[in-house]
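R.M. (postdoc): so does anyone remember the format we settled on? I'll just put the structure tokens first.
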């Protein structure tokens, strides 16, 4: 059974990894970089602080714990226990994997910490903000982040599935603990509606609340333009 799943995983990987172009080489390489999303992360923290003020400390702490937990379970525990080589380090796939800019990653790939961290962040913030547009854009971002790891040749699809499950588990656990703590303190986790959107104050509030999404879109546009210019 394990051999069948491994063969299926490898075949799906080779199919997906084999779909590439010069443009997407640049796009996926930059999109996969964690540091390019720092402005987006900062914007999320800004919105949390502005909306929940003094109570935001516990939300930020829970979010940090969520990411650390997802990262450590995936990279610190599972990868070292399973010791499954990445496609880029699999001798049987030598010459068959599309590699971008010589990037091969560490030795082991199961599970993907990129997928764990991205989906952990996406689910936690979706539960926190509870706005459809946030959920859609965050999960699209997380899915693209996960797919970029297959495109770059450093993860099999099952690595991504495993990382996603770790991220979901971490987000659900941390949000449940946060919600329980807030209920005991009689704090509210509800995002402020911001008043009447037709007024200047209400409009500015809406712009501020959606700032992370604007920065997310601006970052993607920047990656697209840089990838085109690099052709």
């Amino acid at each position: 059974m394990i051999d069948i799943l491994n063969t299926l995983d490898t075949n799906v990987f080779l199919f997906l990894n084999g779909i590439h172009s010069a443009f997407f080489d640049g796009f996926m390489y930059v999109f996969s970089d964690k540091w390019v999303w720092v402005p987006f992360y900062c914007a999320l923290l800004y919105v949390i602080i502005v909306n929940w003020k003094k109570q935001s400390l516990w939300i930020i702490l829970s979010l940090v714990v969520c990411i650390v937990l997802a990262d450590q379970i995936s990279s610190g525990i599972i990868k070292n226990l399973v010791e499954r080589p990445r496609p880029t380090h699999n001798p049987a796939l030598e010459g068959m994997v599309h590699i971008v800019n010589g990037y091969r990653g560490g030795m082991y790939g199961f599970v993907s910490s990129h997928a764990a961290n991205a989906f952990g962040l996406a689910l936690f913030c979706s539960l926190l903000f509870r706005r459809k547009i946030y959920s859609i854009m965050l999960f699209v971002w997380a899915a693209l982040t996960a797919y970029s790891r297959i495109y770059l040749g450093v993860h099999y699809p099952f690595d991504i599935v495993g990382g996603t499950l770790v991220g979901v588990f971490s987000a659900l656990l941390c949000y449940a603990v946060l919600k329980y703590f807030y209920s005991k303190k009689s704090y509210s986790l509800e995002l402020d509606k911001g008043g009447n959107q037709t007024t200047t104050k209400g409009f500015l509030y809406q712009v501020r609340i959606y700032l992370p999404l604007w920065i997310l879109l601006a970052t993607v546009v920047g990656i697209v333009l840089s990838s085109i210019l690099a052709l």
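R.M.: ...and that's the designed sequence above, right after the tokens. Also worth knowing: The chain has one domain: 20-229. Residues 45 and 60 are 7 Å apart (CA to CA).
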